Task: inverse folding
């Protein structure tokens, strides 16, 4: 079953880094606010595994309240970047449904859910956390870079199906992040430990790193992916 990409909006023009051999696993990775899938496709290419397919969709362009309603690539609207800022609940849930359609497409194409990692940076990481924790499929893991858990007050109840109670989460954050302070990352890690098995949550911080990535972080991501998606 090959599945038509056009029926899955996020896949229509997603950047895909294909495996060099038979693909037995997939990493779906979401960019941050105002970016596109290209930058992360490039970053992931540098740590790629030959049997893994990397899918980097582009967010739709919408007006963003936080940026004076300017239209830019954004997975959902943002009103603020603090734990108590109001949130775009309808937009977050709609974005999660669109991302779940990508996961289902990969499953239909023969990649089992336990061979799929969801990940992202900043707003993309936030959406990955929310989507994986509310998914009906048991996924391999989540890579959450410089981000937070959206609608955090709804958890752990929002993950009540408990399918991903034992999911592995790699959360990374720059200690000098001026956009999403590392303290918000630490609060998120604590919250995640109330949603999944606490020992499954890794929270790594990087001295001197701002709202970005660094080679050490990318090596941690590579090790995490290799461990969860071994060659079969």
Result:
């Amino acid at each position: 079953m090959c599945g038509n990409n056009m029926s899955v909006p996020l896949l229509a023009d997603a950047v895909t880094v294909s495996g060099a051999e038979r693909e037995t696993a997939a990493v779906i990775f979401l960019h941050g606010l105002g970016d596109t899938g290209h930058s992360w496709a490039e970053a992931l290419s540098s740590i790629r595994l030959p049997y893994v397919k990397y899918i980097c969709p582009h967010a739709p362009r919408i007006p963003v309240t936080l940026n004076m309603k300017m239209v830019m690539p954004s997975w959902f609207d943002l009103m603020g970047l603090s734990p108590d800022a109001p949130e775009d609940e309808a937009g977050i849930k709609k974005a999660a449904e669109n991302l779940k359609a990508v996961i289902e497409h990969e499953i239909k194409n023969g990649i089992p859910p336990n061979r799929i990692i969801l990940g992202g940076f900043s707003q993309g990481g936030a959406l990955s956390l929310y989507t994986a924790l509310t998914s009906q499929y048991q996924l391999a893991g989540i890579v959450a870079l410089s981000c937070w858990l959206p609608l955090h007050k709804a958890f752990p109840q929002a993950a009540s199906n408990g399918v991903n109670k034992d999911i592995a989460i790699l959360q990374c954050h720059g200690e000098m992040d001026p956009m999403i302070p590392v303290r918000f990352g630490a609060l998120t890690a604590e919250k995640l430990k109330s949603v999944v098995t606490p020992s499954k949550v890794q929270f790594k911080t990087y001295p001197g790193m701002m709202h970005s990535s660094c080679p050490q972080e990318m090596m941690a991501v590579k090790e995490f992916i290799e461990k969860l998606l071994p060659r079969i």
User: Anything to note?
Assistant: The first strand starts at residue 15 and ends at 17. The radius of gyration is 16 Å.
